[in-house]
Amino acid sequence: MNFPGFPGSPEGSGDAAPICSAKGCRAPAVWVLAWNNPKLHTPERRKTWLACDEHREHLSSFLGMRGFLKDVVELAEWERNSAADS
Hints:
Elements (H helix, E strand, L loop, with lengths): L30 E5 L11 E5 L4 H10 L3 E6 H11 L1
Antiparallel strand pairs: 1-2, 1-3
């Protein structure tokens, strides 16, 4: 499944599995970190980073310290919710 717009998802990658957004990590993504910078984005807008199990806490902390982190959801659940919204 292709995830255009997700960090770590190469453009034009076809059905490549989504990978972790942590710098240098090539592990498969397991988590979606939904975030929002209130100085730049409307309250309902959600940007996303992907995380493997190893980097979930680090990326969550990075966003959380800035007050940006809104939700952490398993990728499979995010996909189900996205499909249901379509």
